Amino acid sequence: MKLLRQFLIVLIICFLGEVLNKVVHIPLPGSIIGMLLLFVCLLLGIIKLEMIEEISRFLLDHLAFFFIPAGVGLIAYAGILKRNLIPILVICFATTFLVMIVTGWTVQIIKRRLKRR
Amino acid sequence: MKDIVAAPIFALLISILAYEIGIFINKKTKIAFFNPLMIAIALVIGVLLLLDIPLEDYKSGGDFISLFLTPATVILAVPLYRNINSLKKDYIAILGGVAAGCVTAVFSIWGLAKVFGLPKDLLASLIPKSITTPLGIELSNQIGGIPSVTVAAIIITGIVGAVFAQWILRVCGITDKTAKGIAIGTSAHALGTTKAVELGETEGAMSGLAIGLAGLVTVIAATILSGIGMF
Fold first, then answer.
1. Mean pLDDT in each 10-residue stretch from start to end of chain A (117 residues)?
2. Concatenated DSSP letters for A36-94?
């Protein structure tokens, strides 16, 4: 019962996220609004970490598993992928390196500047 | 026989089995390239092609698994909350770095996609490639991408990040532990973070924090840019 009860809390937040997206027309995806809601609830202490501990462990431990069907859906896009394989791979490699370097340098430079003052 | 493999139970069964095999191979070899999710997806695709099972049949059980994506996204608030203390010390540098990284990601992907003349839906599918999968799928849906392509791009990005992180950071003179962690988490999400954890405790915590921050910043930035018609 514990796991189900904890799941209920998470589902209520998911539902509120959908409502805010569809009814109030906040342009962010419902699940992301839900994530922000849960984050704020945790910060304010409205929801305690213990209240969702088991369900969060279950979901986070198996996170990758939930994406298998989405990945398998690639079958339907084999053609478009094959035609654009080289550009996609170049983009995946190049932008990952670029983002890593820009982020690392920015953090390092700001940190050093602030320390010098 | 056909009815049996079309049942939702079969899809669930091969998915869990494939995932177990993926985790087993990853743990035994300890090689970042052998990513459990990538192995699992490849195995399931292999089974479907081998047994000639249509994607629609697999989806009957697959949709049941995908149902957990929304709760799994919402629950990402938990690790973000757990890491919030490590944000307090260097928050200006961290937020500045994450913001710079996310803007670089969106514009460099957009620019390269234009150079290659990629169709619009592929460009939109690649935009979320540096962020964590649940947020990436949602963003892809939101801006008109193909979520399956996004998942593939996210996995490739994570593997590239995890495999090359140490070398890139050393060559570019990024020595600060906070900078290393934030750089890895912002560019290569949770997959890269597995590497950051190997580098050290600070690197790991910072990388974990960056997953959530970069995901949120990218989703918000890309939603706005999409709203003004950039892609």
1. 93 96 88 93 96 94 89 90 94 98 98 88
2. HHHHHHHHHTSS-GGGGHHHHHHHHHTGGGGGHHHHHGGGGGHHHHHHTHHHHHHHHHH
* Whole-structure pTM value: 0.88
Interface of B with A in 42-71 (CB under 8 A): 44-45, 48-49, 55, 58-59, 62-63, 65-66, 68-71
Q: In degrees to the nearest 10, what's the CA dihedral of A24, A26, A30, A32? A: -140
Give me the residue spans of the domains in chain A: 1-61, 71-117
- Which residues from B are below 8 Å from A97, CB to CB? 160, 164, 168, 187
The CA distance from A55 to A48, in Å, is 13
The chain-wide mean pLDDT, for chain B, equals 92
Q: Please tell me the predicted confidence (pLDDT) of residue B110.
A: 97
> Residue B163: which of A106, A108, A93 has the closest Cα?
A93
Decide if A89 and B156 are in contact by the 8 Å CB cutoff: yes
pLDDT computed for residue B155 by the predictor: 92
Instruction: Provide the ipTM.
Output: 0.90
What's the pLDDT tens digit per position in B110-139? 999 999 999 999 999 999 999 999 999 999
Of B74, B77, B35, nearest to B191 by C-alpha is: B35
- In this complex, which of B113, B122, B219 lies closest to A32 when CB atoms are compared? B219
